Amino acid sequence: MYLGLKEMRRERLRFSLLTGVMVLIALVVFVLAGLANGLSQGNRLAIDQWQAKYVYLNKDANKNISASQLTTAAKNDVKGRKVVPVSLTNTALQKAGKSTKINISALATNRDAFVMPKVTHGHAVNGKNQVIISKNLKDQGVKIGDQIRLGSNTQLLKVVGSYGKSTYSIAPTLYTDISTLAHIKSVGGQPVTKPLPINALISKSSKLTSNDHNLQRLPINTFIQNLPGYSAEQTTLNTMIYFLFAMSLAIIGIFMYVLTLQKQSLFGVMKVEGIGTNHILASVVTQATVMSLISVIIGLAVTILIGNVAPSGMPFALNYGQLGIYGISLVVASILGSLLSWRTIAHINPVIAIK
């Protein structure tokens, strides 16, 4: 260990360059992890906030809530407590008298449903043509008391309250009641009759059964995994992260192997002096460990800084437990890479090496 640290002090430039490369790898890993978490959260945050266990969809919807067409009458075919209807649409919000539009996810449910967000400012939906908005929309200039339109519908809706941050499909959310959203979604302003159209039934109970063969029950995690593009997006980003781990191992392994070849004569002299292979290998492992620890610390610090200064529209979220695991993985990958030099060190012949 002492020999390794002493050599690093003497060869600052050489080891600083490798540490810099490792910092870049660690930074890319941590930033990709933040983006993966941000995209995941942006797609599913509203669903996580439901705190539900099951989602009922039309069996022909291919597990896609947007393609699921049901009516409020479907609730009669589901037995259990805390079963509520949910309707949603991806649309654009426009403030009355303004030309700017904001892409949103509009959700609707019963006014007293457990999936309706808890209002933090203003009041809950208690009448027709009322909506409550997420903090994301407040940050974009939509205020309580504003009159808004959704999509091409000319009906004015009043913002009566707001709740915390919430997104679905990377878009900020708003909530209203089933009747209001049904009128907004109606084609050409056609009158809406009961039973009202919905997209899904959401349940907290784990003992529900359905007598309707047109319904399909999905555990909430299965439902989330089938959100459009969700699994492919997460798989792609995670594959890139794992590839960077392999790259880190390869870079350290190659660098240490080249250094070992360059220092064969030095290692030969050390063996003549009675310093064993394990002692020499320990110095190489120490160097790799120190460089990887420094790179992980710097990479984490820069990533946290990026998270603090990232614009609100950027899907970036840090999971410190996950970052810790990735940091440890990078250190382990570096140590494994340094161990690739063991065979070369073990086969150094002192007589040949010092010629």
From TrEMBL:
Matching InterPro entries: ABC-4/HrtB_transporter, ABC3_permease_C, MacB_PCD
Domain called ABC3 transporter permease C-terminal: residue spans: 239-350
Compartments (UniProt record): Cell membrane
Subunit structure: The complex is composed of two ATP-binding proteins (HrtA), two transmembrane proteins (HrtB) and a solute-binding protein.
Listed name of the protein: Putative hemin transport system permease protein HrtB
Keyword Transport annotated: yes
Transmembrane as UniProt keyword: yes
Its job: Part of the ABC transporter complex hrt involved in hemin import. Responsible for the translocation of the substrate across the membrane.
Species for this entry: Furfurilactobacillus curtus
Keywords: Cell membrane, Membrane, Transmembrane, Transmembrane helix, Transport
Domain MacB-like periplasmic core: 20-182
